[in-house]
Amino acid sequence: MEPRDLSAHTVYRAGRGIEEVARELGLDPDDMVKLASNENMYGPSPKAVEAIRDSAARMHSYPKASHADLAEALAERWDVTTEQVWLGNGGDGALDCLARAMLDPGQDVLVPSPGFAYYAMSARYHHGEVSEYALSKADDFAQTADTVLTDYDGERIVYLTSPHNPTGAEFTTEAVRTIAEETDEQTLVVVDEAYGEFTETPSKRPLLSERDDVALLRTFSKAYGLAGVRLGYAVVPEEWADAYARVNTPFSASELACRAGLAALEDDEHVEQSVETATWAREYIRGELAAHTWDGAGNFVLAEVGDASAVADAAQEAGVIVRDCSSFGLPECIRVTCGTREDTRRAVSVLNEVIEVVEA
Ligand SMILES: *Cc1c(COP(=O)(O)O)cnc(C)c1O
Fold it and tell me: Which of 66, 143, 167, 306 has the fewest CB atoms in 10 Å of its CB?
């Protein structure tokens, strides 16, 4: 036998891990700096670590109470009902729930190019087809209503990323409102705010009170430092929020994840410190890196370095792992995650040496 025709499906290529690279290159993992996956440079909130430890002895139980408590805490934070909070196994899991709730077989979705690979993957898993809207480098990857509407052709879901990964570009609330207005009544506009904590631009949350065709995506993987537990959620309009119960897997967010999430939500200091350092690092990288960079939000900087694969490989041999953006369709760019002050300085210094050698 064989699986169904998966030839259109792609494999998610994550940034490489320290252990993996260290083993391959015979380096000491402790001497390496990983700035390739937009993870939190401070690690998880200490309160989340404690909550995970405390809950370890309860792992024989399904996460009934913690799932409900977390949805409630998030509902309060966003001023929505608990039904409107769709918890998932990572933001990716929440994207799956949205695709499952929206897509009939063969329906199209519209995704940004370059952009986050999982939108298309999730749609294809759910028997959808994928079209793209182009973000133009010549235009500094600007994200306006026109950018999207020019390529819109009645798709069922339109994915917007703000701040965008890997460019850092953002949408204004007004642009998202226009996109929602101009697209079909039966088109869902998903605003992915995975990096929402790192920007001063306000969340698009107000649109959910105005309309029934805009949903938000949020994650604990970035500012909250919980990428390893896999926890994220969608905030959806009240009108169809009850669909979650029909498309969700039983307890899609684990007991560990829910307990960690509840504790992390209470730890404002950890998030504030993470955002503050990321803001510093963004400016530092833009100011000091010997390459063209783009102005944007997020805990990362996109930089044009010529041969990204050669630069990333050489930096890696010097113990600094950054993201080669070839898989995003930008083979001339790397994405550097904001690290601690020490790690960021080291990364920039190594990259500057490497860029000079590779260019020569
Ligand atoms: C990291 C990220 C997510 C969510 O990742 P999870 O770890 O699954 O929560 C979603 N969208 C973008 C653009 C991201 O970079």
Answer: 306
* Cβ 193 under 6 angstroms from ligand 1: no
Which residue ranges form the domains of the chain, and what is each CATH number? 18-44+268-359 (3.90.1150.10), 46-265 (3.40.640.10)
Give 312-347 pLDDT, tens digit per residue: 999 999 999 999 999 999 999 999 999 999 999 999
Nearest atom, ligand 1, residue 115 CA: 13
Atom of ligand 1 nearest to the CA of 219: 9
Alpha-carbon distance of 51 to 56, in angstroms, equals 9
3-class secondary structure, 129: strand
Atom number in ligand 1 closest to CA 222: 1
Tens digits of per-residue pLDDT, 223-262?
A: 999 999 999 999 999 999 999 999 999 889 999 999 999 9
**Tally of CB atoms within 10 A around 238:** 13
Is residue 194 within 8 A of residue 91, CB to CB? The reply is yes
Distance CA 21, CA 87 (A): 32
* Structure tokens belonging to residue 314: 């050489």
Task: Please give the angle made by the CA atoms of 152, 158 and 162, to the nearest 5 degrees.
Answer: 115
Measure 91 CA to ligand 1 centroid, in angstroms: 6
Q: With a 6 A CB cut-off, is 92 part of the ligand 1 pocket?
A: yes
Residue range 280-302, pLDDT digits in tens: 999 999 999 999 999 999 999 99
CB-count burial class (<10 Å; 0-12, 13-18, 19+) for 275: middle
Say if residues 241 and 214 touch (Cβ distance below 8 Å): no
Residue nearest to atom 14 of ligand 1 (CA): 194
